[in-house]
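Section 5.1 Outputs to date
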Amino acid sequence: MKQLSSAEVRQMFLDFFKSKGHSVEPSASLIPVNDPTLLWINSGVATLKKYFDGSVVPENPRITNAQKSIRTNDIENVGKTARHHTMFEMLGNFSIGDYFKKEIIHWSWELLTSPEWFDFDPEKLYVTVYPKDTEAKRIWHEEVGLPLDHIIEIEDNFWDIGAGPSGPDTEIFYDRGQEFNDVAEDDPENYPGGENERYLEIWNLVFSEFNHTPQDTFEPLPHKNIDTGMGLERMVSIIQNAPTNFETDLFLPIIHATEAMSHKKYAVNKQDDISFKVIADHIRALSFAIGDGALPSNEGRGYVLRRLLRRAVMHGKKLGINEAFLYKLVPVVGKIMESYYPEVLAQQEFIQKVVRNEENRFHETINEGLSILEETIAKTKAAGATTLAGKDIFKLYDTYGFPVELTEEVAEDAELSVDHAGFEAEMEQQRQRARAARSDEFSMGVQSALLTDIKVDSKFIGYDNLTSDSELLVIIQDQELVSKGLVGQAQLIFDQTPFYAEMGGQVADHGVITNQAGEVVAKVEDVQKAPNGQALHTVEILSALQEGSTYHLAVDKKMRKKLTKNHTATHLLHRALKDVLGNHANQAGSLVAPGHLRFDFTHFGQVTPAELEEMEHIVNEKIWAAIPVETVETDIDTAKSMGAMALFGEKYGKEVRVVKIANYSLELCGGNHVANTEEIGAFKIISESGIGAGVRRIDAVTSQEAFEAFKAEEALLKETAALVKSPQLKETPTKVESLQESLRELQKENQALLQKLAAQQADNLFVNPETAGALTFLAKQVKVKDMNQLRQLADEWKQKAASDVLVLACQNQDKANLLVAANPKAVAAGVKAGDLIKAIAPLVGGGGGGRPDLAQAGGKNPAGIPQALAAVAEFLNK
């Protein structure tokens, strides 16, 4: 076996399959594109679903990749086992309807055992097969030469995720020797495929050949596929003879850096080792996910990141690190991975900033969580219970990010046990809510032979032409309906078309199709890319159409003109965003429509009005500068060397189109653009808002729509000027400011009068208190306008020491307000304002709470005020 670094293992795998005619697909972002079924990219095949379901036909049916992935279904196991990770790399090779079992089995053996490649000892390799897959077993034994005692039949060797592609698989295991095992040699689990550490699975070859139908039958797929997965971390642990994945060059540098900060050593104490492993694993996931645009938050992906970071911080505290430290590990991660993932080091400053901010924030949260936990423990003990409820543990964990293990430690110190079962039940409910919230709209589908088998050539000529005479090659859907000229929908493919198919955020062109007599025979309502790349025109049929006939295609010129203006403006805005906010502001989606443009971008803070104004001004400056917009067609490597920026979610072939706006903007883009920026006319930002964790959205307009937006604002200004009686528009702000100052003065006067009124009420209010046991109390309804004035009366009561307990109520239109105050004597006697308010608030149809000495509540039933006040004596007497 060759001694290799992790970078060499990854590259050797890719080089091998490249030598077998595979295209090397670069690792995609961890954030799925147009796939609501996934929270994260969780496997090598996840980014290739469009090829497997037939929605897109790849240029090369043979693909290989090294894909960074995240799985979060068992975070709690990370650090406690030898091979659990949140982020990992999956090495894979894929065949989309090309080669099948024979080729991949022979190639896998060659890659693993050939001296030119990994050079494994063949005697150390075992495989498992599906019992009914006699072909795979035959190939392994008769063609590869693997002894039968190295081939194990296992019923579970069938890859099936429900409805969709499925098929048998074969797993390859490496025998590490009994010295690595965690079970006895005679243990029933001590076999390849069993629960043990001796036989380590290194590669899974899936033979995708069936469609699992909703009727629970398995039908042959029109094209058989191969999907394999090799975990890089496992493979490296074998090659580097490491006891676990963590003693490899993928993790050890992070562990060593943590040793230096904690002043503790790895491989000395088992509990400390868990903490070292958790930190090493989690900072890798955090660095890559943040670099790909995810940010910590309280929902979705952001919640996962926040949880990972907080778990790592708590394990840092266990190692004695009581300050922000994770951000210091980001460069270590970047250095380990830079040979294949240079983006971590490239974005190091931004990633560190996000991690450090979140660490500092959590240190504050820990103190808040401890305070709430101590209060919960006190209530538990006061109730005579000896177990901390599962729902309380979950609330601390879910709402405040307070780790369960820390809750357990504090509870143990307080001589309380914890309700693990109740906590797990709450966790399971949350998982179910998360699963229910995730759509299966775009889960792995089945290939459509109807579309994938269409191989005709179709050329887009719409960059330079808005009309064309084109031959109708294919009519899809109801042929009889179309040939009879009946009204309905169909999908058409022509030999050439000026219609732009929706792509890169730009919506599809609309227009009409006419026959040779000039009669409109169809209206084009949408254009999408067919699996083999042809423009698929969705049309409303008005008259009969025939395949093989020539028709005149005409794009809606007015709509196209608006689209080109908005698309070029989108490029200018993208660059302006980075200039103003920083290079971390990456595109996270866009829409180029005729009436407006929408741009989503990653940013972890608010965008100020001044920043928006600066962006808007920059874009307009580029418009006024009348800059020529150039387009260059070149190969992808040349485009990247030019510094061209790739747009979010786009798939680029070998030949690409580069859109250049002087030395300001350079992007890969297949969309339509103006010839000169002055054609845009004007640019105006309409709105800016947050749409998710760390993702914000700008809506903007150009040209005529921008002019109309300016006019609308001018109309509002004129209306305001008229209302404030300003003779000139330019004097309106001064006039408004003067009115606001007058209003503030009146408010001050009003407040002073209200305070005076409250004092006068107090003179008559705080007399003749009632008695309940050893305490005195006042419970009265007063005429004030809000809770603020109730608090002012409470201050007066406190100064006058008129009673031990005060309960005030007021009616504000159709709502009721209640306030309870208790002096030190009442609190010492066991009366808590919060408990009293909770007892009487339901009588006014509401609820509330507060401190032992002051509490307040609101309700929707003011008619219940007399009943609530009458209940005070009963409460105090009890």
